[in-house]
Amino acid sequence: MNEKQYYYEAHGLVIKSVFKLPDFFDIEEKDEYDLEITAGHHLRSKLPAEWFIKKIDHKILIYFREVGLFEVDEKRITFLSDRGTLTKFSHLYLSGLVIGAFLLKKENIVLHASAVANEAGKVTLFVGKSGAGKSCVVAGLLSKGFRLLSDDMVVLKSNENEVDGSTVARGKIRLQLKPDIFSMLYTEDVMTGKNIIKNKLFVTPPSLATSGKLAAIYLLETGDKPSIQEVTKSEALFGLMQNDMQSRFFGNDHRQLDNLAKLVEGLPIYKFIRTEQFSDYETGINLLFSHMEEINLTERGRT
User: Fold this and answer.
1) Residue (of 37, 32, 33) closest to 13 by Cα position
2) Angle (CA) 177 97 86, round 5°
3) Tens digits of residue pLDDT in 36-76
4) Angle CA 123–109–135, to nearest 5
5) Among 147, 174, 255, 287, who pairs with 207 as Cys (CB 3.0-4.6 Å)?
6) Each residue of 198-235: pLDDT tens digit?
7) In a 10 Å sphere around its CB, with 0-12 CB exposed, 13-18 middle and 19+ buried, how is residue 178 labelled?
8) What distance in Å separates the CA atoms of residue 261 and residue 240, rounded to the nearest whole number?
9) Which domains are delineated in the chain?
C-alpha cells in the first residue's frame, strides 16, 4: 500500500514527504522535487549517545535518543526510530537542524536566525542563539506591518560572486512564542495552526512573505536596557560564526568563512540588545522599529 505523500515549499526547495511538516508552506503535488523525506526501517534499539552529528562518506547522520536517527544524503532524508513515526516534538528537529544539514550539503549559508520582509521586499535578519528572542522580535514587527519570511532558521544561497543582497526564500512559517507575548500582541482568531510544544506556542501568522532581497542584519543579545549599537566588522563576523550551522556543528570551512565575510563587508549589521523583562518588550520593539525607519527598512512599495 502506497503511503500518502505531502508536498511543501521551504528555503527554495520543493519537498516531498511521508510526514506532515506544519512548519512549512504546503503546496499541490509536484512531479519534480528537490528533496524527498522518507521513513526507513525501525531502529532495533536506542544508540548509546544522547545525540550526535556525524559526516560519514557522502551522508550526514543526526541522532537524538528521544527522537531517532536521520540519514541525510544528496537527494533524500530518511528517518529511523523505534517508534516508526514523528512526534510533535521531533518535527522541530526535522524542519530545523536536519533540513539545515541537507541545505549545507548544497553549500548554502544556514543561520540560526529569523527574517521579516517589508512590502518593498527588503529582508531583515535577526541572528541569535536559542532564547535570544528572535521570534518575539519578529512577532512585534509583524504587528507593525512586516511579513514573516522565516522563523528560527534562514538560508542564504551562496554563489561565487556575492552573498550580500542575495534572495532569501520563505522558510519556517510558524512562530515560537511565549503565551504572554502572544496574548499581548494578538487576538485568538488572528493566527492559525496553534500548537503548544514544550511550553511554547507555535502559530502561523496571516502575513507571510514569499521571498525578498537581504538588506540588513541585527545580532540579538540580552541586557539590562534596550539599545541598538554599531558593531565592528570583526564583531559582526564572530556573531555570524556563532550562529552559522557549518561553524557550530562541522567546524570552520574556508569557503563558508569567505561567504560570511562577504556578508559583513556588504551589509549594514547592528547589535540589538533587548531585555527579558516583559515590561520592556514594547519599548524595545519601538526602538528597533525607529532604527529600521532611519535606515529605510520600513519603506512601503510593491511586493
Assistant:
1) 33
2) 80
3) 999 887 766 667 788 899 998 889 999 988 888 999 999 99
4) 50
5) 147
6) 567 888 888 899 999 999 999 999 999 999 999 999 99
7) middle
8) 9
9) 6-106 (no CATH), 110-294 (3.40.50.300)
Position 126 pLDDT exceeds 70 = yes
Task: Determine contact, residues 18/3, Cβ cutoff 8 Å.
Answer: yes
Question: Can you tell me the distance from the alpha carbon of 17 to that of 36, in angstroms, rounded to the nearest whole number?
Answer: 6
pLDDT at 303 (0 to 100): 34
The C-alpha cell at 147 is: 511579513
**Matching residue, cell 532558521:** 153
- The tens digit of pLDDT for each residue in 247-290 reads 888 887 888 888 899 889 989 999 999 998 888 889 999 999 99
Instruction: State the Cα–Cα distance between residues 12 and 210, nearest whole angstrom.
Output: 10
CA-based nearest residue to 154, from 303, 7, 12, 54: 12
Farthest CA pair distance, the chain: 59
